[in-house]
Design a protein that fits this description.
iron-sulfur; Rossmann fold; 17 helices; binds iron/sulfur cluster; PAPS/APS_Rdtase; elongated; Thioredoxin-indep_APS_Rdtase; plastid; 476 residues; chloroplast; Glutaredoxin
């Protein structure tokens, strides 16, 4: 991996001083406590020299792979370094990361970043996706410590993202350490299933080949990594992330569970505060953001969102909201599964009892259909009246988002001869709903016409009253 270069001609010491001064004015960036302030922070002119290339022996050579740090030492210096590493591991074993996470829960991102870089040095790297997580690089720069940045080039990114990578490299004087998917695996996937198989059978397989495995390779050369995960990015899967944790999914260079530490310095920061920070510090941004993109990933799987839409609605929009993790942070989903937010068993009910999530669409104008009720509706070829039914899960943010309009619609239709119902289709009803009721993601809205056996699926994501009424009027 390459490193941050201290002597970037594009960053003058004057601009460093003024930008650092502005950092102190931002709410999410607090002054460092004296005990953790790197000495270089107090002297901007010295700090530029403190950020030295990590591979000082060959400063001009890019190292495009994660260094195999476990190789046998060839020199006395390497043997000493290895010995130091062993000492560090022993010290590391004593760290209680749950406790550390509690201690750092109210720390600023800059403090957390500084702690992470101080602790792991060259064995830690920032995972950079090409979106607003560029803020992590700025925080790293502000610590004055050397840092490494890696990114997963899936081969499916937007051109704007590649240009952004280049702009970031130039701005910070760094080489991003790109990780690429295995060419043979990509070839096998594309030859057997085509270029867009993820629209047909889900994004997991493609993400596994293009993202997860390259990430696994990258992390096997590290002892810790730094992510831009935030709690507010995905209420379903990221609400519980701590600022530091033992990585629940991946292994580091020493191998085995517990061999990798995951730092999430902006876990507690809200998206708007990240953007205030980026703007104030004149950090380069991906031009896709100005086109309505919030969360940025691969081109075929990312789209702009409208004002008010949650950013994760712009990713894998054809799939369940709760499954919107590409595998890079699958521990979040695993944790969720542990809480039985899963696709089988009586999971959702358990979650409700754990988190006290109330049921939704609660009005007399909406009929709460049980499994026998919806079975009957499916079997009838001649219904006395048409039905509109939403397949939902009460924990689903998108279902919650349409609750007001669906209730209003039901009340409007009351007495018109059109019945409005709801069927809770998560937990142990999910497979049935997928096979018999065309459930793809929550919410799915079905219209059961009066004289037809098969329900018709509402094809749009516009769930306002007028759009739903237009759908009903076109079919009744
Ligand atoms: S985000 Fe889409 S294109 Fe990118 S790796 Fe995942 S499924 Fe493939």
């Amino acid at each position: 991996m390459a490193s941050a270069a201290a002597t970037s001609g594009s960053i003058s010491s004057h601009s460093l001083i003024s930008r650092d001064a502005r950092a102190a004015l931002i709410g999410s960036v607090r002054h460092l406590e004296a005990s953790i302030v790197p000495s270089t922070l107090n002297c901007p002119s010295r700090r530029r020299w403190a950020v030295k290339p990590l591979h000082a022996v060959e400063p001009t050579r890019r190292n495009d792979s994660v260094a195999p740090l476990a190789a046998a030492p060839a020199t006395m210096a390497e043997a000493v370094a290895e010995e130091k590493g062993r000492g560090r591991e022993e010290e590391e074993e004593k760290v209680d990361y749950d406790q550390l996470a509690r201690e750092l829960e109210n720390a600023s991102p800059l403090e957390i970043m500084d702690k992470a870089l101080e602790k792991f040095g060259d064995d830690i790297a920032i995972a950079f996706s090409g979106a607003e997580d560029v803020a992590l690089i700025e925080y790293a720069r502000l610590t004055g410590r050397p840092f490494r940045v890696f990114s997963l080039d899936t081969g499916r990114l937007n051109p704007e993202t590649y240009r952004f990578f280049d702009a970031v490299e130039k701005h910070y004087g760094i080489h991003i350490e790109y990780m690429f998917p295995d060419a043979v695996e990509v070839q096998a996937l594309v030859r057997s299933k085509g270029l867009f198989s993820f629209y047909e059978d889900g994004h997991q397989e493609c993400c596994r080949v293009r993202k997860v495995r390259p990430l696994r390779r990258a992390l096997k050369g590290l002892r810790a990594w730094i992510t831009g995960q935030r709690k507010d990015q995905s209420p379903g899967t990221r609400a519980q992330i701590p600022v530091v944790q033992v990585d629940p999914s991946f292994e580091g260079i020493d191998g085995g569970i517990g061999s990798l530490i995951k730092w999430n310095p902006v876990a507690n920061v809200e998206g708007k505060d990240i953007w205030d920070f980026i703007r104030t510090m004149d950090v380069p941004v991906n031009s896709l953001h100005s086109q309505g993109y919030v969360s940025i990933g691969c081109e075929p799987c990312t789209r702009p969102v409208l004002p008010g839409q949650h950013e994760r609605e712009g990713r894998w929009w054809w799939e369940d909201a709760k499954a919107k993790e590409c595998g890079l942070h699958k521990g979040n989903v695993a944790q969720e599964a542990a809480q039985k937010l899963g696709t089988n068993g009586n999971g959702a009910a358990a979650v409700n009892s754990v988190h006290g999530i109330p049921d939704i669409f609660e009005t007399q104008a909406i009929v709460n259909l049980s499994r026998p009720g919806i079975d009957n509706l499916l079997r009838l070829e001649n219904r006395r009246e048409p039905w509109l039914v939403v397949l939902y899960a009460p924990w689903c943010r998108f279902c919650q988002g349409m609750e007001a309009s669906y209730v209003e619609l039901a009340e409007k239709l009351s007495g018109t001869g059109i019945k409005v119902g709801k069927f809770r289709a998560d937990g142990d009803q999910k497979t049935f709903a997928q096979q018999q009721l065309q459930l793809g993601s929550f919410p799915t809205i079905l219209f059961f016409p009066k004289h037809a056996s098969r329900p018709i699926k509402y094809p749009s994501e516009r769930r306002d009253v007028d759009s739903l009424l237009a759908f009903i009027n076109a079919l009744r």
